[in-house]
Amino acid sequence: MQNKNFSFVILAGGKGSRIGFKKQFTKLGNLQLWQWSVNVAKNIPEICEIILVIPDGEILENNLTQNLIIAHGGAERSDSVLNGLKKCNCDFVMIHDAARPLLSENLLRDLIYNTDENCGAVPVLPVADALKKIENNNISCVDRENLFITQTPQSFPTKKLIYALENLNNISVKDDAEAWLLSGNKLNYVKGEKFNFKITWPEDFEIARALINSNKNIIRSGIGYDVHKLKPGRKLILGGILIEGSPVGLLGHSDADIITHSIMDAILGAANLPDIGNLFPASDENFKDADSIKLLENVIKLVKNSGYEIKFIDVVLQAQIPKLNKYREIIINNLAKYFDVNLKFKSAEELDDAGAGLNMTCWAVATLSKD
To answer: What is the DSSP-derived secondary structure letter of residue 128?
Structure first.
């Protein structure tokens, strides 16, 4: 089945009876616990809507719940799930505990792949510890072979899950998969994640904080490449600087600033954003003879809005003509208004089109960091 569409229900309706406070609204890093799950789910194209289930009577600030659908919790977990499901508009649904903030995009993709109209999917991990059962002050051993712990999110066809939960006949279930199986449905399983643990006790917060602090800065790299023909009578602009007296310039829809173009694509690649051909297409007359430095400023805004900081840019320009070395520091200083940059000019050694003075080629590598 193709083009699956999913609702993502985050259960944040607990009253905090075990831990002593509403943990779902406690901050982990700079975000409330439930917000971590939102930030992961919104990166998955198949997830079309996010439903947040909060305690009845709870009021959250509008800026926190923008683009979210709000439902209210019930007396039991299954009641809260049903309240969330009634807000769903998609064929499939994932149910996730807000108390599991460190899930990954890969886990969501695994669940999507293993869910269809006849079968749900859950993440599981094998029990690694020795098990004991204590009953009436007597302790006995439990065989852990073939035993697994179940995590969330759990993924199902929406209508079938609603039916399973509405027909429990007063049976108390620990999770949605139990209701699903009691209704006679098939269930797939995928490998769970150890980081996707449930925050239940105060010390669990300390573990989660240690984990996010150990990986506070994400470092990403991107590569940019561009090539343009050289043509007599065109202005030659490199890194936003006009190369005075050049007998040739670069041919392009915009000003054909090959250095700036390569840098933009490197930055966009590191931030996992579309390249300049998609952002500023040659078919759009608005970009005819455009100043590439102005386009670069737009790219920098896009990247910063995605949470990235540009740490360093390294550029190699290959050209036979004209001689450019005297412009190196001038171009670097112009680009240094935006980021740290290094620039190298290389001769094509009279090889191929660049060596014949027919074109220039340029490569750039961008290093970005994200908190």
So the answer is: -
CB atoms closer than 10 angstroms to residue 245: 7
The span from the CA of 193 to the CA of 43, in Å, is 18
Predicted model pTM: 0.61
Cis peptide before 274 (omega within 30 of 0): no
Whether the bond between 202 and the residue before it is cis, its omega within 30 degrees of 0, is: no
Number of alpha helices (DSSP H) and beta strands (DSSP E) in the chain: 11, 19
pLDDT of the chain along its 371 residues, tens only?
Answer: 458 999 999 999 887 666 767 889 999 988 999 999 999 999 999 999 999 999 988 888 887 888 999 999 998 899 999 999 999 999 999 999 999 999 999 999 999 999 999 999 999 999 999 999 999 999 999 999 999 999 999 999 999 999 999 999 889 999 999 999 999 999 999 999 999 999 998 899 999 998 887 666 788 999 999 999 999 989 999 999 999 989 999 988 889 999 999 999 999 999 999 999 999 988 888 888 899 999 999 999 999 988 899 999 999 999 988 988 999 999 999 999 999 999 999 988 777 877 777 899 999 999 999 86
Per-residue tokens: 172: 């108390």
Can you tell me the distance from the alpha carbon of 11 to that of 34, in angstroms, rounded to the nearest whole number? 8
Retrieve residue 188's tokens: 């797939």
Q: Which residues fall within 8 angstroms of residue 234, CB to CB, at 6 or more apart?
A: 248, 249, 250, 251, 256
Strand partners, 230: 250
Which has the closest alpha carbon to 292: 322, 321, 335, 343?
A: 335
Query: Structure tokens of 21?
Result: 């406070």
Q: Which long-range contacts (CB under 8 A, 24 or more apart) does 350-357 make?
A: 350/320, 354/318, 354/319, 354/320, 355/320, 356/320, 357/230, 357/248, 357/320, 357/321
Work out the number of other CB atoms within 10 angstroms of the CB of residue 22: 19
